[in-house]
Specification:
This protein is of the alpha+beta class. Strands 1, 2, 3, 4, 5, 6, 8 and 9 form an eight-stranded antiparallel sheet that branches. Helix 1 runs antiparallel to helix 2. It is elongated, with a radius of gyration of 24 Å.
């Protein structure tokens, strides 16, 4: 991932801070246990709180780095032109041409269109987002998927849409008590408003692999994220600019277009 800081110094800080938090946190944890055994409960709790605060700070730093890098992804450019009123909508062919014309290799999603018996279906598919990592004792993977189907009715200049969201997680760990593994997969159909799916991981150098819109990359850290609003806002902006509306256009319906 790119960022404002020099990648090499950023990595050095990440490695050093991770080790410091691990060592200091372990010492504080052991000290807290000893204090509990000696009856000094209050001081032991203080040490645990300090150790937990260090871990939380380190986690927040990792998440913010991932968010900064993912914020740099390309955004779709909505075509310029006069805004049409709902009473004078643009032909469906013009609308589809503008939607598909926003496609770019740098966008994290792809827009396609196909004829249907009732009009045109526009499919907005997020490109593959998956991350795999390996540390000394743990292997894991996280994958996200998202697709939106927008049905255009040329007879009424109305559109309807539905979203499909998926998430898959796999973890395998080895420790003193043996090996454990589990997986989780979810798939939902409906509409979302302002949702985001993200995962951020750090590991040994070369042990985090990210497969996303920028290709296949292996590094010491990784981040994957799907933010439907990045795709929904330009798509529905084009539709509304061309005079198209949902069958029931009210503030509640517009919330799901973001």
């Amino acid at each position: 991932m790119s960022g404002a800081q020099d990648p090499s110094s950023d990595k050095q800080f990440a490695v050093a801070s991770r080790r410091i938090v691990f060592v200091v946190g372990s010492i504080l944890f052991v000290g807290a246990i000893l204090l509990f055994l000696n009856g000094q409960v209050a001081l032991g709790i203080v040490l645990l709180v300090v150790a937990a605060a260090a871990v939380v700070w380190r986690g927040i730093w990792t998440v913010r780095r991932g968010q900064r890098a993912l914020a740099e992804v390309e955004r779709a450019e909505v075509p310029d032109g006069a805004v049409r009123a709902p009473g004078a909508p643009a032909p469906v062919e013009d609308v589809v041409a503008q939607l598909v014309g926003m496609n770019s290799d740098g966008l994290p999603y792809q827009i396609d269109a196909e004829r249907t018996p009732k009009g045109v279906r526009v499919t907005v598919q997020w490109k593959h987002e998956e991350m795999r990592w390996q540390t000394l004792f743990v292997r894991g993977s996280q994958a996200f998927a998202w697709r939106m189907e927008v049905d255009l009715d040329p007879a009424t200049a109305h559109y309807k849409f539905v979203e499909h969201s998926g998430k898959a997680s796999v973890r395998a760990a080895a420790g003193p008590m043996g090996a454990t593994a589990y997986g989780n997969w979810t798939w939902q159909k409906g509409k979302t408003a302002g949702g985001t799916s993200a995962s951020f991981v750090e590991g040994a150098d070369g042990q985090v692999r990210v497969v996303g819109q920028t290709g296949d990359r292996t590094s010491w850290e990784g981040a994957v994220m799907i933010k439907p609003a990045d795709a929904k806002v330009p798509v529905f902006t084009v539709l509304r600019n061309n005079g198209w509306r949902p069958p029931r256009d009210w503030s509640g319906a517009r919330m799901f277009e973001k």
